[in-house]
């Protein structure tokens, strides 16, 4: 019953978000054109495909933005949260419905992430270009470190719990609150959330609805604040959002098995590379 209510709320939230986004894009249709559009659409298709597999979408999208210079560094965080909000909601609808997870744990961690994102978006949208570059550089490096530790077996999902209680639940709530804030800095929640929940003893399978649900609820909330502040690239966000949904559906309903280890290694390389590029850009930026 509660899960059904959660899904209804999510659908309602996404519909409202989509309307706000569409109105803003249409009201600013004279915004300078960004080329090539096909690459932006392909970016959404590929990154949200990877996102559905639990690998994440932010770092690859950021790397493409940096390589093509399609989006200014200062508005990358807002663009990421807005562009991937709807595809992530599609993921959450699928995994929350299919995978059984303790309702209290699921709802508590989702609310914590949303609150963190709401507060974070208000702060991040006011950051200077250099501050955003530094924040993303450090956070991306830490994310890569967590992924490496997981791959070499130092962080593993040995637990089989479908929920958290007591001190572990509190730790999870605090952790997801912080990760929600970092999402608004343009750094994906998936990898650090996965590592955190593994450490807290949760089953690897249960991690998917928790992390996807957290992002699905927090991204529209944070996205609305970025939209109102005008801190995102409208046309790239719209193109990625549309094609990203197709990437999610392909991954969820067609793919049964892929060499995820290879894909994760590629993503780690991209994360480290992008972290370095962001740090280098921050050193060159004279803006405070």
Describe this structure in words.
With 288 residues, the protein is mostly helical. It has one domain (2-284). The protein contains twelve helices and no strands. It has helices spanning 2-27, 37-52, 58-68, 76-83, 85-98, 103-124, 129-151, 166-183, 190-199, 204-229, 234-253, 260-284. The radius of gyration is 18 Å and the shape is globular. The N and C termini lie far apart (50 Å).
Describe the secondary structure blueprint for this structure.
Blueprint: H1 2-27, H2 37-52, H3 58-68, H4 76-83, H5 85-98, H6 103-124, H7 129-151, H8 166-183, H9 190-199, H10 204-229, H11 234-253, H12 260-284
Helix pairs in contact: 1-5, 1-10, 2-11, 3-12, 4-10, 4-11, 5-10, 5-11, 6-8, 6-10, 7-12, 8-9, 9-10
Please name the defining characteristics of this protein.
288 residues; mainly alpha
Classify the helix fraction into a percent range. Answer: over 70%
* Element-level helix/strand string: HHHHHHHHHHHH
Average of per-residue pLDDT values:
84
Radius of gyration: 18 Å
Overall 3D geometry?
globular
Number of self-contained structural domains: 1
**What's the total count of β strands?**
0
**Sheet with most strands:** none
Low-pLDDT segments: none
The CA-CA distance between the termini, in Å, is 50 Å
Strand fraction equals: under 5%
Number of helices: 12
From the helix content, strand content and strand pairing, which structural class follows? mainly alpha
């Amino acid at each position: 019953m509660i899960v059904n209510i959660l899904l209804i709320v999510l659908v309602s939230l996404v519909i409202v978000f989509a309307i706000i986004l569409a109105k803003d894009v249409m009201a600013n249709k004279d915004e300078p054109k960004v080329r090539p559009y096909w690459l932006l659409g392909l970016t959404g298709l590929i990154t949200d495909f990877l996102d559905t597999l639990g690998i994440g979408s932010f770092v690859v999208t950021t790397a493409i933005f940096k390589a093509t210079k399609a989006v200014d560094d200062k508005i990358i965080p807002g663009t990421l949260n807005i562009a991937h909000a709807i595809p992530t909601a599609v993921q959450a609808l699928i995994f929350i419905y299919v995978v059984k997870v303790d309702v209290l744990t699921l709802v508590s961690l989702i609310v914590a992430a949303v609150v963190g994102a709401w507060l974070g978006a208000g702060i991040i949208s006011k950051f200077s270009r250099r501050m955003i570059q530094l924040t993303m550089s450090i956070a991306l490096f830490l994310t890569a470190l967590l992924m490496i530790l997981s791959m070499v077996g130092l962080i593993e999902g040995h637990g089989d719990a479908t929920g958290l209680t007591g001190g572990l639940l509190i730790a999870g709530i605090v952790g997801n609150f912080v990760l929600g804030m970092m999402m608004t800095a343009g750094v994906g929640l998936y990898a650090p959330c996965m590592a955190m929940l593994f450490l807290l003893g949760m089953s690897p399978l249960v991690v998917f609805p928790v992390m996807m649900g957290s992002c699905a609820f927090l991204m529209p909330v944070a996205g609305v604040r970025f939209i109102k502040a005008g801190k995102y690239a409208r046309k790239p966000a719209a193109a990625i959002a549309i094609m990203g949904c197709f990437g999610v559906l392909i991954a969820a309903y067609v793919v049964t098995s892929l060499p995820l280890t290879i894909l994760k290694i590629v993503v780690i390389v991209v994360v480290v590379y992008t972290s370095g590029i962001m740090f280098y850009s921050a050193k060159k930026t004279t803006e405070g």
